[in-house]
Each structure stands twice: as C-alpha cells, then as structure tokens.
Amino acid sequence: MKQILLLMATMLLTCCTKDSEVQAQTVENVGKTLVVYYSYTNNCHEIVTSLTSQIQADVMRIEPADKTMVSTDRPQKYEANNYAIGTALLNAIKAAPNDAASYPAIDPVSITDLSQYQNIIIVTPLWWSQMAAIMQTYLFNYSSQMAGKHVALIVSSHSSGINGVMADAERLVKNVTWMGNALWINASNHNNRASLIQNWLPTLNFAEKQTTMDKMYITIGGVTQPATLVDNAATQALVERLKDGAVTVTLNSSGGFEIWGALGFSLPTSNEQINAQPGDVILYNGSNICIFYGTNSWSYTRLGKIDGLSESELRTFLKAGEGNITVTLSLSSGTTTINSVRSVATENDAYYSLSGQRLAQAPAHGIYIENGIKKIAR
User: Do the Cβ atoms of 295 and 317 come closer than 8 Å?
Assistant: First the structure.
C-alpha cells in the first residue's frame, strides 16, 4: 500500500472562494493515516469526502450487521418513535459497557491490522447526545490496537452539543494521544464543512513518520516470516536487544490458541486488556512471548503482528499443538544479518546461521557464516 501523505500543522493552506476548491499543501515526513467512519444519514460520508480531498489517507466505513438500518427505504429507523431503537441500543451499552454482547453487531471490517497507521481520524454521528452505537462497537473491538497512536475526532449532529460523544470516545479509546480538539459539524454549518475542516487540520498534532525499526523476523523450522512491530517501550527495548544478535527461545503450544514461553529477559510493560487475534505477537508478564494462531482475551503488552498469513498458515508455521518449538527472533530476514555477524565474528572457527544464531559447529548442509564469510555446505 502506498505511503500516505498527511497535512502537518505547520503547512500553508491555499484558500479558495468555493468549498469544493479548497486544497491543502502536504509534506512527506508524516505518518500514515486512517479515516474510519459510520454514516447513517450520509452526512458523515460527505464529511469524509471533504476531509479526504484535503489529506491523503486510507478510508474505512463501518456498517451495521442489521441491514434494515442501511437502505434508504429501511422499515426500521433508529430515530423512530422518539428514538426508541437507537435509545435501546445505547442503553444496552450503558448497562454493561465492558461486555462485548452489549454492543450491536457490525459487518467484518476491511482493515483488521492497525499497526501500519500512526494517525487515526474517527468520524461519527451523534445519537441522542452520545456516540452512535455502531461506531461504539467498532471502537470497543479495535481500541486496543489504537494504543500509542495519534487520534482525532469529528462529530456530526443536528444541533446537540458533542460533550457526550467526546466522553464516549475517551472511555473507549485509551492510551492514545488526542491530536487536538474535536471538530463539531452540525446542520447549520454542514454546507461549510470543507472550510471548517481546512481550518481545523492545522490545529492537529499529527504523528510523524515512524523512524524506529518496525520489522522483526521470526524463524521456525527453517522458515522465516516478518512481523510488523508496534512502537512502544517494549518493542524499542526488544529491538535494542536484537541489535546485539538474534535471540532463540523454546516455546510450547498452550490453550489451543498460542505458542508461548520465556524470553530469558524482561521488557517494559504497558499492559491492557487485549483481544489477541491470529498472528499477534504479545508480551506476557514482562518476560514471556506469546504468538497467537487463535484468539484470547487477557492483560498483555502488544509487540506486533506476523504479516500476511491466514489462520491455517499460521498454525502450520507456528507448529500449533507441538511442544519444544525452537523460535528465533532477529532483525533480519537473512542477508543483512551477515554484516552484523561479520563485525563480531573475529575469533577462529566462529559459525553463525543466516539469522544470526551462533552454532557450535559448521552444519553438514546449507548456508552458514564462518568468521564473517558466507559458505555453503553440501
């Protein structure tokens, strides 16, 4: 996916006479952005269209699973009978805000891994002075992936103030940096949304492009897969450790959803309740690494996610169900680690695998490094 360009707070704005002609200059050294929204009356969709004419971002629309709430001739309306349906949905959330069953079902989303984004802009309608229940469902499900990111909020309403929506956002989305004040677009100024967005964007504190190393490589049984790291204190410490050389650990299958075991050292924790998904790489209790091929909810520190494998492919790669699985963590898929091995392999008869693992002796078959020189044993 192409690198996204964002508007920075310091950029110059080009002012035009018509809202549709409002354009914004962009710069390259900023982080990647996702705009996620739900739209019931199409007002939020129009807001997102105006927003994305001024910045470059990926866009994802949230849809309710109940399709009677989607079409223009829907037999049910959230606002009918003094907002009876909408109020019932909101009241269910109020009664048990920590219970996933309290939130109305939504369709599967098109983007399930948020690790590639530094900035997230949420665009939501207001229902009865609160955040629309459909958007609350999405945030309940995915807020753990937003931890450490920069987040902004746009709220659409007819006339009601947005304090309740802001409170819902702060309840659902924790451990984030709010980029600035929420933007309120209502019935009286909706037609001026482009200029409102144009004036709002420079007030935001967008995250800059990630400059820290964001890839780790996991090798099991001679097969290596990349994992995209999140940016937190734990991954920063892990990367520093791996710069000294690859780390090999022994993991075991557990619970039918993960392989896990001791790292042999501790990392900083920022534990939170996480609904771990297949491919997630997680730190448990500060010194254990868990790699998931199923799902589980617990208090973890997120490290990253294995890229591009289906659940069945993950089970094969991770040797699901087996014990004593040798897993090597490194900062190289193979070739670049040779340079780091060359810098430390100064003694005679020093053997290393391509992933940087020190070997007791030269292997009988395959490619290895001896005293900084790549060799092939046949």
Answer: no
Pairing of strands 223-229, 296-306: antiparallel
3-state SS assignment for residue 156: strand
Q: Which residue has the tokens 């989303």?
A: 109
Q: Please give the torsion angle defined by the CA atoms of residues 282, 284, 289 and 293, in that order, rounded to the nearest 10 degrees.
A: -50
Q: Is 189 helix (H, G, I), strand (E, B) or coil?
A: coil
User: Does residue 336 have a pLDDT over 50?
Assistant: no
Computed from CA positions of residues 286, 290, 292, 294, in that sequence, does the dihedral angle turn out positive or negative?
negative
d(CA 293, CA 282): 12
Tokens describing residue 339: 């340079």
Measuring CA to CA, which residue among 31, 42, 204, 203 is closest to residue 123? 42
Q: Hunting for tokens 């690494």 — which residue is that?
A: 289
> In the structure encoding, which two tokens stand for residue 310, read together?
């289906």
* Cα–Cα nearest to 341, from 299, 315, 370: 370
The position carrying tokens 């001739």 is: 73
First to last CA, the chain: 40
How much is the pTM?
0.54
Q: For 301-319, how does the pLDDT look when each residue is reduced to its tens digit (9 = 90+)?
A: 999 998 778 889 999 999 9
Whether 326 contacts 353, CB under 8 Å: no
- What does residue 295 show for φ and ψ, rounded to 5 degrees? -125, 150
For helices 43-52 and 193-200, angle between their N-to-C axes, nearest 10 degrees: 50
Can you tell me the distance from the alpha carbon of 38 to that of 48, in angstroms, rounded to the nearest whole number? 10
Which amino acid does the sequence have at 266? S
d(CA 109, CA 145): 14
Residues 293 and 314: beta-carbon distance below 8 Å: yes
Q: Tokens for 301?
A: 């520190």
CA distance 57 to 4: 6
DSSP bridge partners of 250: 326
d(CA 362, CA 370): 8
* Tens-place pLDDT, residues 346-358: 344 566 554 455 5
